[in-house]
Amino acid sequence: MAEMRLYDLRVTVERIEGRSVCGLEVGDYFEVTESNRVRIPEGKHFCLYALQSVMPLLPAKQRKLPDEDWLEQDSLVCCPDPDERVVMRIERTGERVLRSEDLT
Question: Domain coordinates of the chain in residue numbers?
């Protein structure tokens, strides 16, 4: 039984340098837990386009990377809408031990 370690993540709107036409506010967030579960707080939303801009980085941030890897050192992602300029931070919130056979 192969085990692996993955981090749970929280992606939080850190700042908005433009105007938020999608309705996000500083402090809004979503979480990725148990490898693949996306959770948004009840009564809240997260813009699909902001979400898609951060999605490609999440699998790498779920894993421990070499200290010198740029993605281990950097955690900010920007929304693709130039009028909004929503800046989000990816944070590791905990580590889980999972069994590979339960996930694939």
Answer: 3-103
